[in-house]
Amino acid sequence: MLNLFRKKSSDNRPVNNSNWRDRLARSRSVLSDEIRELITSAGSIDENLLEDLEAVLLGADLGVATTTRILEALRQAQKAGVVSTPQQVLPAIQAELFDLLEPCEQYLSIDPDHRPYVLLMVGVNGVGKTTTIGKLTQRFREEGLSVMLAAGDTFRAAAAEQLQVWGERNQVPVVAQQAGADPAAVVFDAMQSAQAKNVDILIADTAGRLHTQTNLMAELEKVVRVIKRQDQTAPHEVMLVVDASTGQNALHQAREFNQAAKLSGITVTKLDGTARGGVLFAIANELKIPIRFIGVGERAEDLRPFDAASFIDAILPLEAK
Ligand SMILES: Nc1nc2c(ncn2[C@@H]2O[C@H](COP(=O)(O)OP(=O)(O)O)[C@@H](O)[C@H]2O)c(=O)[nH]1
Ligand SMILES: [Mg+2]
Question: Which of 5, 237, 270, 296 has the smallest C-beta neighbourhood within 10 Å, fewest atoms?
Answer without folding.
Answer: 5
